[in-house]
Every structure is written in C-alpha cells, then in structure tokens.
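Q&A log
Question type: sequence-to-structure
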Amino acid sequence: MAMSENAAPEDIQAMSYEQARDELVAVVGKLEQGGITLEESIGLWERGEALAARCEEWLVGARARLDAAKKAREGS
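Response status: OK
Response body:
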C-alpha cells in the first residue's frame, strides 16, 4: 500500500494516542523478532512510521493545549 509522505492511512488518523502507541510497540516487536520477508518488513516499517507520526501529532497537540492553559492562567 503506497502512501504519500505526509498522509497516514485513515485507520491511523482515527486512532487515539494510546491506540497508536500500543500498535507501534507491537510493530517494533514484530520487526525485532524477525522471521518475516523483506516486503513484510518494509510494510511494517512504513506503518510504524505513520504510527509514530500520529503519536507525535497527539503530543504536539497536548503541548499546545497545556501552553494555552498556562497562558490563560497567567493572564487572569
């Protein structure tokens, strides 16, 4: 499944942080275990990259919300 560099599959875009993190851990485990074909490894790597990007989106969003709350509190 080919995807553009910045677009994650819809199922990943719909994931919560915890769902994406848990699947990323599973993907890394499968890659570390080995015993899969090169094609399967590449597919897992690509999915892992998309999952990691989704986790990063959640973390950046959380940081922005915390910063906004802090500024609002300081402005009161």
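Response note: Helices lie at 10-13, 17-33, 38-75.
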